[in-house]
Design goal:
Layout (H helix, E strand, L loop, with lengths): L5 H14 L5 H4 L21 H7 L11 H10 L2 H17 L8 E10 L5 E7 L2 E6 L5 E4 L9 E13 L6 E10 L8 H10 L6 E3 L10 H6 L2 E3 L29 E6 L3 E6 L15 E5 L13 H10 L4 H9 L10 H21 L19
Parallel strand pairs: 1-7, 7-8
Antiparallel strand pairs: 1-5, 2-3, 4-5, 5-6, 9-10, 10-11
Length: 379
């Protein structure tokens, strides 16, 4: 009879992610013979840890163990389709509980996953481009966000995550992620991540993101049907005859009357002259219409500056919170695996653990009751 099933290895990965993310796989799957006489240092799935063994599904009577080699083979044998199906299984239960039915706004953001043990094996120049080859061939060197205590550059990967944010409470839940080398630009993964989200059944209508993700020509909306709201890029200048403070549009430099916004055309925004008869001396000669093409600045598909856009951009800040949970609480800050495929599997297990904790409602901060201090008799 088969002693171990894939469910046992999956439970082992979830247990390590939730309770012991800081230790290595070798220590997690230790041998009881190495800890004779030291029960306090026994392996985390050893015979003395009955609670962990019961969760994994190991026998409490027989000395049945899982080695770190077996867990490595389990991770290596999982395909990307299987990893997506595992995540969808957990998301289905969240949907059944009604957790995702509160009018969530979706957000896309990224975070670095540094690999500290990487060594630079070679540095080549091919056709004017510098190419670095590291110990892990899939990872690469890229720029990270400005942080006080860390370098500007990071060697490793970048995780792009689709997050659901409750606009009423600001509570955010990570849904699904894609992984890429750190030197790839964020904008390349907006469309694939949205396509993956829609393929697994997520109702995506509006996504808020930072400046790195953009839809400068409206092609993202045509392909996906999803609106993108992001801050205007500082590198894009305003079109001619547009007020920088109020974003009011005028026909030309001789016009003093702001134009009225009509709506969206196929390739941009349409504005109409709002002057009344006799108010402008060029009323009969002026075309009275102006077209402004989509850009990566203030004239995105959804015009920047409205109250709805401001609220969506404020909500976007909550999209960074799941990364703190995935990294600090579930231990993704220290990956402890090698190769891109293994890190993709590790990222999936971490997301599943976060969703399971959300489903169980545990690890939430309890409100402390305010107790009044009793004064002593002497006082």
């Amino acid at each position: 009879m088969r002693g171990l099933y894939p469910s046992n290895f999956l439970r082992s990965e979830l247990l390590k992610t939730v309770k012991h993310p800081e230790i290595s796989y070798r220590k997690f799957c230790g041998d009881d013979n190495d800890y004779k006489g030291h029960k306090e240092n026994s392996p985390y799935i050893g015979m003395d840890n009955k609670q962990n063994r019961a969760f994994i599904g190991l026998s409490l009577q027989r000395k049945q163990m899982i080695s770190h080699v077996q867990m490595c083979q389990f991770r290596a044998g999982l395909t990307f389709t299987q990893l997506v199906n595992l995540t969808v299984y957990i998301l289905y239960h969240l949907k059944e509980r009604g957790i995702l039915d509160d009018g969530f706004v979706h957000c896309v953001d990224s975070s670095e996953l540094p690999i500290d043990r990487q060594q630079l094996l070679a540095k080549l120049t091919i056709k004017g481009k510098k190419i670095r080859i590291y110990d892990d061939i899939d990872c690469d060197c890229g720029k990270r966000r400005k942080k006080r205590d860390k370098s500007v550059y990071v060697v490793g990967y970048r995780m792009h995550t689709l997050t659901a944010i409750n606009p009423k409470t600001g509570h955010s839940i990570p849904l699904i992620s894609l992984l890429a080398p750190a030197n790839h630009h964020d904008s390349l993964f907006l469309a694939p991540l949205v396509r993956l989200g829609k393929a697994i059944g997520l109702d995506l209508k509006l996504i808020t993101a930072d400046e790195a993700y953009h839809d400068k020509d409206g092609s993202f909306f045509k392909e996906s049907g999803v609106h993108l709201v992001k801050p205007p890029s500082s590198k894009v200048s305003l079109p001619a005859n547009v007020d920088a403070g109020t974003l009011q549009v005028k026909f030309d430099n001789l016009c003093d009357i702001p134009m009225k916004y009509i709506g969206i055309e196929e390739q941009g925004h349409e504005f109409k002259c709002d002057a009344k008869s006799g108010q402008c001396h060029r009323f009969e000669l002026c075309p009275k219409f102006r077209h402004i093409a989509f850009d990566n600045g203030c004239f995105q598909r959804i015009l920047y500056g409205s109250e709805a856009v401001s609220k969506a951009l404020d909500i976007r800040k909550n999209g960074e919170r799941p990364f703190n949970l995935l990294k600090k609480r579930e231990g993704l800050d220290q990956v402890r695996v090698r190769s891109q495929h293994a890190i993709v599997a590790r990222t999936t297990f971490t997301t599943m653990a976060t969703l399971l904790l959300e489903l169980a409602g545990t690890r939430r901060t309890k409100k402390k009751k305010q107790t009044q201090m009793k004064l002593s008799l002497a006082a």
